[in-house]
């Protein structure tokens, strides 16, 4: 081996290598600088939308919509969601206020009523001046529509029964904490939530409250695995704790063979026993239930009674019957508006007939009439289409949810505005070409463009409405109630009902004169609009029904505890 | 200038006198009532709006025509026969009466326009639509006013004049349904969403009727002077 062929390169040999190094340097240095500068320029505004539970949706009810947006400049305006309708000509637009700083990111978890599988749902960021900043589409697939969805937080999805008793198929949607809704309404499309892992730090307050409100108002949750018992939500969702002891069990009807965790029932918890094994526990949470399974969900076969115990019975919800609305001629405000102009016009003509300067007055009156008449007409239109609203407000475990149905018939073609309280979810259906629902901090505005005689139907849900929380307590065969607005109150319990009567010397109301229950009592009928299984509810526990006393038509229903 | 003096005198008599004000009060009351009738909800494709529009046309046409033909006698108002006895030329009298009718028709139409605007706004119609309707009101009432002025100087018998005038107007307006749907007929042209060409034809026709009538008036005045 010659030295020249060793490790010391000659000048001629060094030259190509140096060129390569310089070439690499020339490429990487600008690329590095570009990468340094690029983030400063900011990502272009973007928006992403995900509909349903891991893509699964149930048509005809509320589904969660998660929207994530990022902007490169301050954007103040609206998050706009265009929801396709069953009839293609119709359009429902939801608008939520939006205020993002430069480089800001925002996440919205919204309930959306999905009724059309053929057209995409469109989400857009719209600035105050009407300019669209970014947009995206979420396309619901017909094959992703199911009759029942079981949500699952964990690693290994379980296998619930795939057939729904009322028809259709059931699926499991694998979820993450981040996609859980921020309103209880969005859980309407979820039959059951199976929680095997839950990191509460990844939930915000709205998500926690929504989950609890859903359960309290009829939702069902199964917990398994090792949830942190000291974490507030995990503890609340648990009907039992694992003691840490595990026993081997043979195959049971409810569980496949394998290890069985020993459960320690928490207060209110009730065991589910099979062949002397405690296979599960359950506890009521308001109108809902939480279950704790003694085995991993994957060990619960599809035919297990545990699934049928946890899954809620399927029932179709029907709202109140449509009122027999007739378009009203808004004579009163029209008479005042037209009469004011007529009187002023007459006075101005009287002045004009005597002095030429009076014609200036006549011109001023005419101008005022021309300018003011559209305002008068708007007022008349609004008064002619007052929303015929019916409410059912349910209080369970101190958590209040209100449900409202409104009907309005348009006497004339045009745009009508209706004001609703601050609702979490609003759905519009019936006769209209466009409906725009604007969610403001203190109220919701619904603007519907309707043809003559068309009937608009609105349905909305209000969560956590303010107000004193009433209390219902059974006592010695009677029921004691403390709360506002108790005149004409009725208590239902079992197959009986009793009027609420004022207790002497205290602020309590007592129901003790029991009589046979009227199954068609208006309060029970109203409760069935919200809970089809209302008969079961009043069978188990006392339920106080009071006519709403604040000018609204409907019932306040206070659900007592299970005895 | 004499023509303007005739206009001033007529307007003063029709608006500045007690009777003039009473007539105007009845007129605006009629507008108010028709406006209220127009607020009725639409049922079965029939809109009270067009009934109200035709009603306003009838009210405005009636008042302008009655005032022009002397059917409503305002104290101090000089008719064509009175003016023929004054040292005004026939053209000045005809111009004066034409302008007087136009001014009064404008006043009456101006009172009806906000009502039309209200009815349009109630149904989210454009304001230009009410303006077009008002233009039809103005033209038709002025045309009938000119016709009434001509009848006033042509037919001596008051009874015959009234029968001819109101009979003719009623037959013309109410006969719209009998002769078929002529879009340019006032009862059709004044309706909401009538075609623009129909309104233009209608307005031009009645402006022509007014001009023709006033030309006939100016031709009639020398004979009147000879008869006197």
How much strand content do the residues of chain A show? 35-45%
pLDDT under 50 segments of chain B (min length 5)?
none
Structural class of chain B: mainly alpha
The total beta strand count of chain A reads: 32
| Helix-strand makeup class of chain A | alpha+beta
Strand percent estimate of chain B: under 5%
Mean pLDDT of chain A: 86
Oligomeric organization of the protein chains: heterodimer
Architecture overview:
The complex is a heterodimer of chains A (563) and B (228). Chain A is an alpha+beta fold and 563 residues long. Chain A has eight helices and 32 strands. In chain A, strands 20-23-18-17-32-31-26-27-30 form a nine-stranded mixed sheet. In chain A, strands 7-6-3-4-21-22-19 form a seven-stranded mixed sheet, with no helix packed on it. In chain A, helix 5 runs antiparallel to helix 6. The longest helix of chain A is centred in the N-terminal third of the chain and has 31 residues, at 11-41. Chain A is flat, with a radius of gyration of 32 Å. The termini of chain A are far apart. Chain B has one domain (2-227). Helices cover 79% and strands 0% of the residues of chain B. Classes of the chains: A alpha+beta (563), B mainly alpha (228). Chain A binds chain B through residues 327-331, 334-335, 337-339, 341-343, 345-346, 349-350, 352-354, 362, 366, 369-370, 373-374, 376-378, 380-381, 384, 411-415, 452-453, and chain B through 11-12, 14-17, 20-21, 24-25, 28-29, 31-32, 35-36, 39-43, 47, 107, 110-111, 113-115, 117-124, 127.
């Amino acid at each position: 081996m010659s030295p020249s062929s060793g490790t010391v390169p000659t000048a001629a040999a060094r030259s190509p290598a140096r060129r390569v190094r310089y070439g690499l340097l020339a490429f990487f240095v600008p690329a590095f600088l570009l990468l340094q500068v690029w983030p400063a320029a900011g990502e272009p505004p973007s928006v992403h939308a995900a509909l349903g539970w891991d893509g699964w949706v149930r048509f005809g009810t509320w589904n969660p919509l998660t929207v994530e947006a990022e902007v490169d400049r301050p954007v103040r305006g609206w998050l706009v969601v265009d929801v396709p309708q069953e009839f293609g000509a119709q359009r429902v637009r939801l608008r939520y206020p939006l205020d993002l700083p430069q480089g800001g990111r925002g996440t919205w978890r919204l309930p959306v009523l999905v009724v059309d599988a053929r057209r995409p749902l469109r989400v857009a960021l719209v600035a105050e001046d009407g300019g669209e900043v970014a947009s995206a589409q979420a396309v619901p697939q017909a094959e992703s529509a199911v009759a029942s969805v079981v949500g699952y937080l964990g690693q290994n999805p379980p296998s619930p029964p795939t057939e729904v008793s009322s028809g259709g198929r059931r699926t499991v949607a694998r979820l993450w904490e981040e996609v859980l809704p921020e309103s209880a309404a969005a859980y309407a499309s979820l039959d059951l939530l199976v929680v095997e892992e839950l990191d509460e730090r990844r939930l915000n307050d709205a998500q926690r409250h929504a989950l609890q409100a859903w359960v309290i108002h009829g939702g069902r949750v199964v917990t398994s695995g090792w949830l942190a018992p000291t974490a507030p939500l995990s503890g609340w969702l648990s009907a039992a704790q694992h003691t840490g002891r595990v026993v081997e069990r043979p195959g049971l009807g409810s569980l496949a063979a394998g290890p069985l965790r020993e459960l320690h029932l928490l207060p209110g918890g009730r065991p589910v026993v099979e062949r002397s094994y405690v296979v599960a526990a359950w506890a009521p949470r308001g109108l809902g239930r939480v279950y704790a399974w003694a085995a991993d969900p994957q060990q619960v076969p599809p035919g297990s009674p545990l699934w049928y115990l946890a899954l809620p019975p399927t029932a179709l919800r029907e709202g109140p019957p449509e009122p027999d609305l007739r378009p009203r001629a808004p004579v009163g405000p029209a008479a005042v508006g037209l009469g004011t102009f007529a009187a002023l016009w007459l006075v101005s003509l009287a002045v004009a007939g005597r002095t030429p300067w009076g014609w200036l007055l006549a011109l001023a009156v005419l101008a005022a009439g021309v300018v003011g008449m559209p305002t008068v007409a708007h007022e008349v239109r609004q008064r002619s289409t007052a929303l015929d609203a019916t409410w059912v407000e349910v209080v369970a475990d101190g958590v209040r949810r209100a449900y409202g149905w409104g009907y309005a018939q348009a006497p004339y073609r045009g745009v009508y505005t209706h004001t609703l309280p601050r609702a979490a979810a609003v759905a519009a259906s019936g006769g209209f070409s466009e409906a725009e629902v604007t969610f403001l901090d203190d109220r919701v505005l619904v603007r519907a463009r309707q043809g003559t005689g068309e009937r608009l139907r609105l349905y909305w849900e209000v969560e956590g409405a303010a107000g004193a929380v009433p209390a219902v307590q059974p006592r010695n065969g009677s029921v004691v109630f403390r709360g506002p607005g108790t005149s004409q109150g009725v208590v239902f319990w079992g197959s009986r009902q009793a009027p609420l009567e004022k207790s002497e010397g205290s602020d309590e109301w007592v129901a003790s004169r029991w009589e046979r229950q009227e199954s068609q009592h208006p309060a029970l009928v109203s409760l069935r609009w919200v809970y089809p299984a209302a008969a079961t509810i009043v069978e188990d526990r006392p339920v106080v029904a009071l006519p709403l006393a604040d000018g609204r038509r409907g019932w306040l229903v206070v659900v007592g505890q299970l005895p | 200038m004499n023509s303007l003096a005739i206009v001033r005198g007529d307007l003063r008599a029709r608006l500045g006198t007690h009777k003039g004000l009473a007539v105007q009060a009845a007129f605006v009351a009629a507008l108010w009532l028709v406006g209220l009738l127009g607020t009725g909800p639409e049922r079965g494709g029939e809109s009270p709006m067009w009934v109200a529009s035709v009603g306003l046309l009838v009210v405005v046409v009636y008042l302008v025509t009655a005032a022009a033909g002397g059917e409503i006698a305002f104290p101090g108002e000089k008719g064509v026969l009175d003016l023929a006895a004054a040292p005004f030329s026939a053209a000045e009298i005809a111009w004066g009466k034409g302008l007087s009718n136009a001014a009064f028709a404008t006043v009456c139409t101006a009172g009806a326009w906000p009502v039309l605007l209200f009815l349009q706004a109630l149904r989210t119609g454009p304001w230009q639509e009410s303006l077009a309707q008002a233009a039809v009101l103005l033209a038709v009432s002025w045309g009938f006013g000119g016709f009434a002025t001509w009848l006033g100087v042509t037919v001596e018998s008051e009874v015959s004049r009234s029968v001819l005038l109101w009979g003719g107007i009623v037959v013309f307006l109410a006969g719209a349904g009998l002769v078929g749907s002529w879009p340019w007929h006032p009862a059709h042209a004044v309706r909401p969403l009538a075609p623009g060409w129909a309104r233009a034809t209608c307005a031009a026709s009645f402006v022509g009727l007014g001009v023709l009538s006033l030309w006939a008036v100016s031709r009639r005045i020398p004979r009147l002077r000879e008869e006197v």
